[in-house]
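Protein of interest.
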Amino acid sequence: MNKIKVLYISHESKEIAGATLSLYNLIHSVEEWVEPVVLLDRKDVVYDFFQERGIPCLVFPFKRVLYNYGFIKRVLLSLPRLIRDSVSNDKCLQFVKNQLGSQGIDIIHSNSSAITVGEYLAKGLGVKHVWHVREFLDKDFRFHPFGGMDRLRKRINRADACIAITSQVAQHWNMTGANAHVIWDAVRKEEDVCAILPKEKYFLFCCASLSDSKGADTAVKAFCMSGLSQKGYSLKMVGNCTEGYKEKLVHIIRSFSDGMVENVEFLGYQKDVTPLMKRATAFLMCSQNEGLGRVTIEAMCYGCPVIARHSGGTVDYLKDRETGYFFTHDEQCASLMNEVSSMSAPTTIYAANEFFKLHFTEEVYGIQINCIYQELLSQQKYE
């Protein structure tokens, strides 16, 4: 069987965060049918990540469509920005043609709402465009696109296929047409699912970079409120953390008790959190507006009970007291930490394992993505 050629466009280059890991799982899940190439805006850690895994990459400094500054500056920069982006897109199209022209591309797959160059490349190459939307953009990262959210919504919805990672994300982007799909990301293969007991005496908080928007402050406050440090429990904080932000979190801890500081461990960025997931008493998902929550799903895979904020895309798949536990404020999170720590074998572990097998494995995901690709290519034949 001849494989189709898909050019994946990644908005991440300097940090291996959830979107990069999810893109890798996507590519791995469709390897039976797809010959992939990843387009990045620079050579950095994400380039190394894909190269080490045998996935070919192209590098061109394409531009993003975001800003995080005020109205006046946005207006002043709008025309220069439009000219710059137009020139950049033209150069990127020519670059891709020069690099892949002889091989041809069947589909362009944009891996984020933060980039629009995929739309331009697909039009210039005369191929189908899949736009994969993984974030709220304004609600979670406080970013906005040039031209406004409504304009970007219309552009995304004009794609040949647009994919949202949760129904909450789809709703935010008004994705309701026949070309719209809601598909939860794959996180692991089915063979990786496990549940190891007994658990060790620590709670786990994990994200690419610690911040208030990810709920790092909530995790620290809830742990301090729980009083579990007096019972020998600790809180392990995984993720990049600036010295300034770490000082803020330590100040919060000390406001409860100086002695509690030694019970909160800052482990920095970890390439593999699997060993920590498998043994943790519970995983804390405290993000304000998580598009999906990849690490939450990893916890479900590895038999780690999830205590999650009732917000964002998490409400799509986590069922309170069935596959995890929901909280709405810090005190409730602290109470649930005490509750879960007193259980020898939380029943949610096994329910979460089974739910993961049905919805989050690469085996299931690959079939879903390939069905979209094949549908697009069949349309192209008859146009």
User: Anything to note?
Assistant: The chain has a mean pLDDT of 92.
